[in-house]
Amino acid sequence: MIEFCRVNEIKTLEEILLEKRCRLFCSIVKLKPCQKIYEKGENDRIVLEPEAFEGSELTLELHITVGRITASTLKAELERGGNFAVIAEYFASKDNKLIFHPILFC
């Protein structure tokens, strides 16, 4: 996937936040802990929030359906928060917030 992103010139999240445009990003993202991941049903959507990015007034949310996270290890790591490799697609913007849908998490 990294080679795909390189060949297709997929930008990093930092580049998107600074340029304020793009459809996809590929980056290591530091996510805040998501305590709700085990409280929600399989069809419920959760919001994963990255730590703030220095130099940008924009904030980011990653929206994902709980049922799409099948690995128990990934769920446990998302509950604790930390650094994740993410490829995500732009979905919408609201005020100063960009909303993306993750395509790949590791």
What does this entry look like structurally?
The chain is of the alpha+beta class. It has a single domain, classed as OB fold (Dihydrolipoamide Acetyltransferase, E2P) (Beta Barrel), CATH 2.40.50. The chain has 3 helices and 5 strands. A 5-stranded mixed sheet has the order 1-4-5-3-2. A hairpin with a 2-residue loop joins strand 4 (82-94) and strand 5. The longest helix is centred in the last third of the chain and has 9 residues, at 72-80. It is globular, with a radius of gyration of 13 Å.
Question: What topology does this entry show?
Answer:
Layout: H1 2-7, H2 13-19, E1 24-31, E2 45-48, E3 59-65, H3 72-80, E4 82-94, E5 97-105
Parallel strand pairs: 3-5
Antiparallel strand pairs: 1-4, 2-3, 4-5
Brief description of this entry?
The protein is built from three helices and five strands, in the order ααβββαββ.
Secondary-structure class: alpha+beta
Kindly state the percentage of residues in helix.
10-25%
Quote the CATH topology: OB fold (Dihydrolipoamide Acetyltransferase, E2P)
Count of runs of 4 or more consecutive helical residues: 3
- Supply Rg: 13 Å
The total domain count is 1
CATH class: Mainly Beta
Q: Strand tally, please?
A: 5
Low-confidence residue ranges: none
Calculate the terminal CA-CA distance, rounded to whole Å.
11 Å
Major sheet: arrangement of strands: 1-4-5-3-2
Keywords:
5 strands, alpha+beta, 3 helices, OB fold (Dihydrolipoamide Acetyltransferase, E2P), 21% helix, globular, 106 residues
